[in-house]
Structure formats: structure tokens, C-alpha cells
Amino acid sequence: QVQLVESGGGAVQAGGSLTLSCTASGVTFDLGSVAWYRQVPGEERDLVAYITSADITDYADSVKGRFTVSRGNAKNIVNLQMSSLKSEDTGVYYCDYVSYWGQGTQVTVSS
Fold first, then answer.
1. CA 97 to CA 31: how far, in whole Å?
2. 18 - beta bridge partners?
3. How confident is residue 108, by pLDDT bands cut at 50, 70 and 90?
């Protein structure tokens, strides 16, 4: 059974940093892209960043230069390093892999 678990969220002040992790069980991240999304109440999930199986990365314009998506030491982990956080980065962050989703992790940035 495939499961994704996001972790690392929390509450930080603007300008701070957090690193989120997406950990998979039942599968490894070598067959497709892993994407991070952010959702705020009442809105759709927005793509934040992704990494392909060839380690090509891309980012939403709003996070370019501040966020970095990378593979962890194990084949079932992908991280999202977030720095220079802004209040508009607040939301629930989800990872997605071949249409599997985690339960999300809350990030709250206070100004």
C-alpha cells in the first residue's frame, strides 16, 4: 500500500526557514515527479515546486530563489527547503507522487 507522509511544518516568523519532508512507504520516488502543493482555506491547491525523476526542478514564481526541492538520502524521501518565508507562504503543504497524496503539513508564517 502506497502512503505519503509530509512532515516538518510548523509556525515561524517571517524571514525564517523550514524544511518539509515527504516520505513514501510502499514505493520509491524513482518513477515520476514529486510535487509540492500549498492550499489555503477556500482555495485550490497551488503547485509550489516539483522534481522529476531526472532531478529537473521547477518552482512557482512566488517561491523562486527561496525554496529548494531536493531528494533525500533515501529513494523514498523528497525535501522542500523553505527560506525567507513570507506570510503568504502560509498554508497546508501536500506532496504528490503519481496521484498519491499525503495528509499535508501546516505551515504558518507570522509577520
1. 9
2. 82
3. very high
Closest to 74 (Cα-Cα) out of 33, 34, 24: 24
CB atoms within 10 A of CB 78: 27
Assign 3-class secondary structure to 41-107.
Answer: CCCCCEEEEEECCCCCEEECCCCCCCEEEEECCCCCEEEEEECCCCHHHCEEEEEEECCEECCCEEE
Distances (CA, A) of 29 to 25, 40, 85, 97: 10, 26, 27, 8
Is a pLDDT exceeding 90 seen at residue 31?
no
Alpha-carbon distance 52 to 61, whole Å? 18
Length of the chain: 111
Give Cα separations from 60 to 27, 52, 65 (angstroms).
Answer: 26, 15, 10
C-alpha cell at position 27: 514505493
State residue 10's pLDDT score: 98
